[in-house]
Give the backbone structure.
Amino acid sequence: MPKLKSLHATPEAVETAFYDALEAGDVDALMDCWSGDEEIVCIHPGGPRLLGHHAIAASWREILGNGPINVRPTDPQVMQGSLVSVHSVLSRVMALVKTEGTLPGRSTQQTMAVNVLVTHVFFKGADGWRMVLHHASVTTQDADAMPSPTAGTLH
Amino acid sequence: MPKLKSLHATPEAVETAFYDALEAGDVDALMDCWSGDEEIVCIHPGGPRLLGHHAIAASWREILGNGPINVRPTDPQVMQGSLVSVHSVLSRVMALVKTEGTLPGRSTQQTMAVNVLVTHVFFKGADGWRMVLHHASVTTQDADAMPSPTAGTLH
């Protein structure tokens, strides 16, 4: 019998469940945050656009196969409608970065802190709030030094 | 007297006006696509998160100062609500990439084709459809080889 899906009352509750699932390395709990719609979109930093449950679940299974990800987003910027919520958050993740060695075919791996900007879109439907888009990309912006809304950063 | 803002009847019309403005190198027309809300978000590839009209307009003025950008997005993935529209599109842009030279302080610039994934979020308000978020990031995915919704790309 399939497990009953959890019903999230707010977009913030889905986002918390999403990061809880990353921390637990639990792909099922993570996929439970998403809308049942097949048009859902997931973009990992630098990666291709993934569409639909099958491709998205497979990508997270591969990522979490390296171990759970303990990250909590900061600096939320929220745009809220009655049936939609758009969140822009910043997070600092420890990523395994591959570096090519001096001998052909020899590469080394090292863990580095990477700043990632994430756009989350949540829709409200009959089954509560669900994630429909996760777009993550590496940024030069430091997690501790986000610009304020009123300060222009480029002139 | 301030110019009257155009009223876009569909999210697609705003998106077309946005790319028309890039092609014309017209920052005013480009900013006219955005919501009047100060919570709007813009992320250029690799760059910091920019919030509000002042910072966003300044960034586009700097980018378009190098000349207009002639790009049309492909492979749209659209999630549509009554008052929100989320578009994921792919585009191939010609970007000026800086490469460090062999002598300190000597860098060269070359133009390269870069594939960019863009998330656009549009809200419908009293002044028609308006852009509230533009999140662009470089992808390894080739513009001509997007995965189909049913094909998993990672195993």
Q: What stands out?
A: The longest strand of chain B covers residues 107-125. Residues 23 and 70 of chain B are 5 Å apart (CA to CA).
